[in-house]
């Protein structure tokens, strides 16, 4: 395609299209990235070199939650003759280091323990040896908790005024037990869950005992799951779940086995092996 034809297709002038094609060609030949539409020499040359970049990554490796202002201070402290603003450092981190500042995700230390990794490997190897296919023969089971006082973390209000949301002192919560396959939702079961009663309120005779999901609740849920599978003649026989205490009772194991199904327990600290975790993540985004 000629430059003139390309210019007409993208509704740009011939000279602009020619310049962008030249930039892209040079970038490909030199193995570099290029920001189309920008000139080769725009703005002052960055004060930060490869040595500074390595230093930034070292500090981020030591503390991932460090702020851009702190990084700037450490740079100026370590490199005595460097004078730079946090804005310039922020630009360098985003555009040169390809780093973004995002919400942190808590991860247990034991998750990457050598023993846990070995158990995870052995479990997956055993599933493969048995021919367990997650896409065609497995039902994924788990529960998730929700708080009705949850709201978006940001909102709008007049300048100089806080964005306030009215909530209850101790908002009610609920949990949902779910069973899904790689293609469908088998069943969902909602149950009210409350926090333990405050000591000051224990004398209140009207306070009913509060509790979460019990073994009997889980048994009822499993019965729903197996009934739905058989009612729709779905060819699934493995129930994949974590090793929570209510999942490993003798009653649950016997109930499942008697009906021709098998339970596959996930190795410890391995929730990411259960696809239903992604399901809960999407559902919580909608609820919250």
Automatic annotation (TrEMBL):
One Pfam family hit: DDE_3
Taxonomic lineage from the root: Eukaryota, Fungi, Fungi incertae sedis, Mucoromycota, Mucoromycotina
Transmembrane segments: none
Annotated ranges, domain Tc1-like transposase DDE: 211-285
GO molecular function terms attached to this record: nucleic acid binding
InterPro entries registered for this protein in UniProt: RNaseH_sf, Tc1-like_DDE_dom
UniProt name for this protein: Tc1-like transposase DDE domain-containing protein
Organism listed in the record: Circinella minor
